[in-house]
Amino acid sequence: MKYAMLIYGDDKLWEQATPEQAEQTRAAHERFIAMLSQRGAFLGGDALAGSRETVSLRKKDGHVLRTDGPYLETVEHLGGFYLIEAENLDEAIGYAKACPEQIVEVRPVVEYQE
Amino acid sequence: MSIRNEAVEQAYREHWARLLALLTAELRDLDLAEESLQDAFATAVSSWPPVPANPPAWLLTAARRRAVDRLRRTAVATRKLPLLVVEEQPAHDDRLRLIFTCCHPALSMEARVALTLRCVGGLTTRQIARMFLVGEATMAARITRAKKKISQAGIPFRVPAGPELRERLDGVLAVLYLIFTEGYAATEGDALIRDETASEAITLARMLVSLLPDESEVRALQALMMLHHARRHARVGSDGRLVTLAEQDRSLWRHQEIEEALALLAPGPPGPYLLQAAIAAEHTSAARAQDTDWTAIAALYGMLEELTGSAVVRLNHAVAVAEASGPEAGLAMLDGLEAELPHHHLLPATRAELLRRLGRTEEAVTEYGRALALVGTQQEREFLLSRRTETERGLRP
Question: Where is the RNA polymerase sigma-70 region domain (chain B) (predicted)?
């Protein structure tokens, strides 16, 4: 089954990271991706820019309302994601535990049958 | 299932969980397995007797046939849910996989409880709804949502392996104990439903013991529930009031059940259920309340407190210490518990009782007042009020 791992965090903490810390995080993710790839579990993933670089659109009755910032106003924002292939939820949770981030949401991907 | 067919009822009790587990592994669809098996039992109601030579085999064949019919009727296109992930685990009884799937931590606690009672216990949705004081439609929706999540989220039909097993087994035990205690809490008024819920939890624990005979915590949980349940007829007085352990008529206890429970307890690593069962065993083995070995109970609570770090356990520990070594020692242990139990009426109630015993009457009356401001149930309120009045009377010259 396919799962999305959504990574949440405080933008400020990410922005305030020293170059060394940022490098450590990047290296940790590279190791994580290597581990996933070795098991044939890595399907994709990326880091996302901060919530300040975000724009949200809401469409209603032919009008488009554009707002500056993310759809949800919270302290923790969606900061990145992985798309993985896992045998079952237990395996996906195992990968999420190994993911070098504090908050990871595991979402099954809906797969449409022909 | 409203069945009035003795042979079917017996087959239902004995074989429901095993057949459902087997069918779920075969069909890779819990929902389909459950509905087909339900159909098979309904067919049995109308066609038994004659009772077949091998009832479970007959039921399995009937259920398989119904499953094929159901699959044929619902076009493939409408069946979008992914198939259950079934791992090859020949070493395990299928019922064990069913239990771990129903108690998966990705499901809400409510869903785990409902699904376990439905799939493993074989209770009807109506019975479960009655136990938890919700409407039948609400309970049916809860069970349907849970089954859908198992399928859509890819919750596997498997027994966890390695270090994961310990953690997940604790989760299963928590579900069973919750069924037991919720039954008591939610339906205090209706003794019949309460007893039914409690004995269902015990039946589930008994099944788990037979599947995992070497797990001392599983045996301890069954023993703990049986020791509590054996006192059911002495807990409520003829006027409907709760009777405290010390005042219970011990001849009303089910001593045969107590014996059975004690036989389950074997020395093992001191887990939370084993320690609680050992405490309950100390209480039930005292012939009279005054024969209770409070020193042993205080020591067991001490171990339990160390293991769990729970403030409620500390409160109980303090009560045991007060009984064993005097109210002063117990009182000292309550210091600082307010921060952790700010809304718990038993903390000021316990303090009041200990102050009263020490003759510190005015302080005791103040504490009874605090407890009365926090207490929830009418029965306990009345008890506290009468205690305060009694204490105040002691104040007057």
Answer: 12-74
